[in-house]
Amino acid sequence: NNKKNKFDAILFDLGLSSNQLNDPERGFSFMFDGPLDMGMGINSRKVSDIINNYSELELANIIYNFGEERLSRKIAKNIVAARKVKSIKSTLELVGLIKKSFPILQLNKSKINPATKTFQALRIYLNDELNELSKALNKSINLLKPKGKLIIVSFQSLEDRIVKDFLNHNSGKRWRSSRHYPELADEGSITLNLITKKPIRPSEREIINNPRSRSAKLRVGEKIN
Predict the structure, then answer these.
(1) Which of 70, 121, 150, 212 has a beta carbon 3.0–4.6 Å from 66's, enabling a disulfide?
(2) Rg of the chain, C-alpha, whole Å
(3) Do residues 184 and 153 make contact, with C-beta atoms less than 8 angstroms apart?
(4) CATH code, domain carrying 212
(5) CB 223 within 8 A of CB 145
(6) Residue 69 belongs to what domain range?
(7) Is residue 45 part of a domain?
(8) Is residue 219 within 8 Å of 192, Cβ to Cβ?
(9) Where do the H-state alpha helices sit in 68-222?
(10) What is the DSSP pairing of strand 7-13 with strand 144-154?
(11) Interior CA angle at 15 toward 134 and 54, to 5°?
(12) Is 156:15 a contact under the CB 8 Å cutoff?
Protein backbone atom coordinates (compact mmCIF):
# COMPACT_ATOMS: atom_id res chain seq x y z
CA ASN A 1 0.00 0.00 0.00
CA ASN A 2 3.03 2.30 -0.05
CA LYS A 3 2.51 4.85 -2.84
CA LYS A 4 6.27 5.06 -3.36
CA ASN A 5 6.23 1.47 -4.57
CA LYS A 6 3.45 2.01 -7.10
CA PHE A 7 3.72 2.64 -10.82
CA ASP A 8 2.51 5.19 -13.36
CA ALA A 9 2.05 2.41 -15.90
CA ILE A 10 2.33 -1.36 -16.22
CA LEU A 11 2.88 -2.96 -19.62
CA PHE A 12 2.08 -6.59 -20.43
CA ASP A 13 3.71 -7.71 -23.69
CA LEU A 14 2.33 -11.24 -23.92
CA GLY A 15 3.57 -14.21 -25.87
CA LEU A 16 7.08 -15.15 -26.92
CA SER A 17 10.04 -12.89 -27.57
CA SER A 18 12.04 -13.10 -30.78
CA ASN A 19 15.01 -14.36 -28.74
CA GLN A 20 12.96 -17.30 -27.49
CA LEU A 21 11.60 -18.12 -30.94
CA ASN A 22 14.99 -17.88 -32.62
CA ASP A 23 16.75 -20.23 -30.20
CA PRO A 24 16.28 -23.82 -31.50
CA GLU A 25 17.28 -25.27 -28.12
CA ARG A 26 14.18 -23.77 -26.47
CA GLY A 27 11.89 -25.74 -28.79
CA PHE A 28 9.33 -22.96 -29.25
CA SER A 29 9.63 -22.62 -33.02
CA PHE A 30 8.35 -25.00 -35.67
CA MET A 31 10.82 -23.44 -38.13
CA PHE A 32 13.97 -24.92 -36.53
CA ASP A 33 14.94 -28.41 -35.47
CA GLY A 34 15.41 -28.65 -31.73
CA PRO A 35 14.36 -30.54 -28.60
CA LEU A 36 10.69 -30.54 -27.60
CA ASP A 37 11.16 -28.32 -24.56
CA MET A 38 9.04 -25.09 -24.47
CA GLY A 39 9.44 -24.75 -20.71
CA MET A 40 9.55 -21.29 -19.12
CA GLY A 41 10.85 -20.13 -15.76
CA ILE A 42 11.47 -22.90 -13.23
CA ASN A 43 9.19 -25.36 -15.03
CA SER A 44 11.05 -28.68 -15.16
CA ARG A 45 8.53 -30.38 -17.43
CA LYS A 46 8.96 -30.45 -21.18
CA VAL A 47 6.54 -30.74 -24.08
CA SER A 48 8.17 -34.08 -24.93
CA ASP A 49 6.74 -35.42 -21.64
CA ILE A 50 3.24 -34.51 -22.80
CA ILE A 51 3.67 -35.70 -26.38
CA ASN A 52 5.05 -39.10 -25.40
CA ASN A 53 2.93 -39.89 -22.32
CA TYR A 54 -0.52 -38.30 -22.52
CA SER A 55 -3.44 -40.28 -23.91
CA GLU A 56 -4.86 -39.59 -27.35
CA LEU A 57 -7.94 -37.96 -25.81
CA GLU A 58 -5.86 -35.77 -23.49
CA LEU A 59 -3.69 -34.61 -26.40
CA ALA A 60 -6.73 -33.88 -28.57
CA ASN A 61 -8.34 -31.83 -25.79
CA ILE A 62 -5.16 -29.80 -25.18
CA ILE A 63 -4.69 -29.06 -28.88
CA TYR A 64 -8.34 -28.07 -29.29
CA ASN A 65 -8.85 -26.10 -26.07
CA PHE A 66 -5.58 -24.17 -26.10
CA GLY A 67 -4.94 -23.98 -29.84
CA GLU A 68 -8.49 -23.93 -31.23
CA GLU A 69 -7.28 -26.46 -33.80
CA ARG A 70 -10.17 -28.20 -35.60
CA LEU A 71 -8.00 -31.15 -36.62
CA SER A 72 -6.96 -31.84 -33.02
CA ARG A 73 -8.25 -35.43 -33.00
CA LYS A 74 -6.43 -36.34 -36.20
CA ILE A 75 -3.20 -34.75 -34.95
CA ALA A 76 -3.45 -36.57 -31.61
CA LYS A 77 -4.11 -39.87 -33.40
CA ASN A 78 -1.01 -39.46 -35.58
CA ILE A 79 1.13 -38.53 -32.58
CA VAL A 80 0.07 -41.63 -30.63
CA ALA A 81 0.59 -43.89 -33.66
CA ALA A 82 4.09 -42.50 -34.26
CA ARG A 83 5.26 -42.79 -30.65
CA LYS A 84 4.36 -46.50 -30.62
CA VAL A 85 7.25 -46.95 -33.06
CA LYS A 86 9.68 -44.56 -31.32
CA SER A 87 9.60 -41.60 -28.97
CA ILE A 88 9.02 -38.18 -30.56
CA LYS A 89 12.00 -36.05 -29.60
CA SER A 90 12.36 -33.08 -31.96
CA THR A 91 10.28 -30.13 -33.09
CA LEU A 92 10.53 -31.07 -36.76
CA GLU A 93 9.40 -34.63 -36.03
CA LEU A 94 6.28 -33.16 -34.46
CA VAL A 95 5.80 -30.71 -37.35
CA GLY A 96 5.88 -33.63 -39.78
CA LEU A 97 3.14 -35.46 -37.86
CA ILE A 98 1.00 -32.33 -37.74
CA LYS A 99 1.36 -31.72 -41.49
CA LYS A 100 0.44 -35.35 -42.12
CA SER A 101 -2.90 -34.64 -40.43
CA PHE A 102 -3.93 -31.94 -42.92
CA PRO A 103 -5.51 -32.48 -46.36
CA ILE A 104 -3.12 -31.47 -49.16
CA LEU A 105 -5.48 -28.78 -50.47
CA GLN A 106 -5.72 -27.18 -47.03
CA LEU A 107 -1.93 -27.20 -46.67
CA ASN A 108 -1.54 -25.43 -49.99
CA LYS A 109 -4.18 -22.79 -49.25
CA SER A 110 -3.31 -22.01 -45.63
CA LYS A 111 -1.64 -18.66 -44.91
CA ILE A 112 -0.19 -19.89 -41.62
CA ASN A 113 2.05 -22.84 -40.85
CA PRO A 114 -0.13 -25.87 -39.99
CA ALA A 115 1.88 -26.41 -36.80
CA THR A 116 1.11 -22.93 -35.44
CA LYS A 117 -1.96 -23.79 -33.37
CA THR A 118 -0.63 -27.08 -32.01
CA PHE A 119 2.66 -25.53 -30.89
CA GLN A 120 0.70 -22.69 -29.27
CA ALA A 121 -1.56 -25.14 -27.44
CA LEU A 122 1.28 -27.25 -26.07
CA ARG A 123 3.24 -24.20 -24.90
CA ILE A 124 0.23 -22.60 -23.20
CA TYR A 125 -0.76 -25.84 -21.46
CA LEU A 126 2.77 -26.71 -20.34
CA ASN A 127 3.38 -23.30 -18.77
CA ASP A 128 -0.18 -22.70 -17.51
CA GLU A 129 -0.03 -19.37 -19.32
CA LEU A 130 -3.70 -18.42 -19.15
CA ASN A 131 -3.96 -18.87 -15.38
CA GLU A 132 -0.67 -17.01 -14.93
CA LEU A 133 -2.03 -14.15 -17.04
CA SER A 134 -5.24 -13.96 -14.98
CA LYS A 135 -3.30 -13.88 -11.70
CA ALA A 136 -0.90 -11.22 -12.96
CA LEU A 137 -3.73 -8.99 -14.20
CA ASN A 138 -5.53 -9.22 -10.87
CA LYS A 139 -2.38 -8.24 -8.96
CA SER A 140 -1.54 -5.38 -11.32
CA ILE A 141 -4.34 -3.02 -10.23
CA ASN A 142 -2.99 -2.72 -6.68
CA LEU A 143 0.44 -1.85 -8.07
CA LEU A 144 -0.81 1.17 -10.04
CA LYS A 145 -1.00 4.75 -8.83
CA PRO A 146 -4.31 6.61 -9.32
CA LYS A 147 -4.62 7.46 -13.03
CA GLY A 148 -1.97 4.81 -13.71
CA LYS A 149 -2.27 3.02 -17.05
CA LEU A 150 -2.58 -0.73 -17.52
CA ILE A 151 -1.42 -1.55 -21.05
CA ILE A 152 -1.74 -5.05 -22.50
CA VAL A 153 -0.57 -6.31 -25.88
CA SER A 154 -1.89 -9.77 -26.76
CA PHE A 155 -1.19 -11.89 -29.83
CA GLN A 156 -3.84 -14.61 -29.88
CA SER A 157 -7.53 -14.91 -29.16
CA LEU A 158 -7.37 -16.89 -25.91
CA GLU A 159 -5.19 -14.24 -24.27
CA ASP A 160 -7.22 -11.39 -25.70
CA ARG A 161 -10.51 -12.77 -24.37
CA ILE A 162 -9.06 -12.94 -20.86
CA VAL A 163 -7.70 -9.39 -21.15
CA LYS A 164 -11.01 -8.11 -22.56
CA ASP A 165 -13.03 -9.78 -19.80
CA PHE A 166 -10.69 -8.43 -17.12
CA LEU A 167 -10.87 -4.84 -18.38
CA ASN A 168 -14.62 -4.99 -18.94
CA HIS A 169 -15.31 -6.47 -15.52
CA ASN A 170 -13.14 -3.97 -13.67
CA SER A 171 -14.70 -1.06 -15.57
CA GLY A 172 -18.23 -2.16 -14.67
CA LYS A 173 -19.25 -4.43 -17.56
CA ARG A 174 -20.08 -7.80 -16.03
CA TRP A 175 -20.06 -10.48 -18.70
CA ARG A 176 -17.65 -13.23 -19.60
CA SER A 177 -16.44 -14.28 -23.07
CA SER A 178 -13.53 -16.57 -22.12
CA ARG A 179 -14.12 -20.08 -20.85
CA HIS A 180 -10.55 -20.02 -19.48
CA TYR A 181 -11.18 -17.01 -17.23
CA PRO A 182 -12.51 -17.74 -13.72
CA GLU A 183 -16.18 -17.03 -13.15
CA LEU A 184 -16.73 -13.31 -12.76
CA ALA A 185 -18.81 -12.16 -9.82
CA ASP A 186 -21.70 -9.79 -10.52
CA GLU A 187 -20.59 -7.60 -7.64
CA GLY A 188 -17.30 -5.88 -6.96
CA SER A 189 -15.78 -2.44 -7.04
CA ILE A 190 -15.10 -0.61 -10.30
CA THR A 191 -11.36 0.04 -10.39
CA LEU A 192 -10.62 0.99 -14.01
CA ASN A 193 -11.74 3.34 -16.74
CA LEU A 194 -11.66 1.69 -20.14
CA ILE A 195 -9.44 3.80 -22.42
CA THR A 196 -9.71 1.59 -25.50
CA LYS A 197 -13.30 0.65 -26.36
CA LYS A 198 -11.89 -1.53 -29.14
CA PRO A 199 -8.35 -2.92 -29.42
CA ILE A 200 -5.72 -0.93 -31.29
CA ARG A 201 -4.29 -2.92 -34.21
CA PRO A 202 -0.98 -2.45 -36.05
CA SER A 203 -0.93 -0.38 -39.23
CA GLU A 204 -0.14 -1.94 -42.60
CA ARG A 205 3.27 -0.24 -42.52
CA GLU A 206 4.05 -1.68 -39.10
CA ILE A 207 3.08 -5.17 -40.24
CA ILE A 208 5.39 -4.84 -43.26
CA ASN A 209 8.26 -3.68 -41.03
CA ASN A 210 7.50 -6.23 -38.30
CA PRO A 211 5.45 -9.20 -39.60
CA ARG A 212 5.17 -10.70 -36.11
CA SER A 213 3.00 -7.73 -35.08
CA ARG A 214 0.20 -8.70 -37.48
CA SER A 215 -1.96 -10.38 -34.83
CA ALA A 216 -1.25 -7.88 -32.03
CA LYS A 217 -4.09 -6.22 -30.11
CA LEU A 218 -3.44 -3.41 -27.64
CA ARG A 219 -5.93 -2.63 -24.86
CA VAL A 220 -5.61 0.04 -22.14
CA GLY A 221 -7.28 0.70 -18.81
CA GLU A 222 -6.74 3.59 -16.37
CA LYS A 223 -6.93 3.14 -12.62
CA ILE A 224 -9.63 5.19 -10.92
CA ASN A 225 -8.62 7.44 -7.99
Answers:
(1) 121
(2) 19
(3) no
(4) 3.40.50.150
(5) yes
(6) 33-127
(7) yes
(8) no
(9) 72-85, 91-100, 104-109, 116-127, 129-140, 157-170, 204-209
(10) parallel
(11) 80
(12) yes
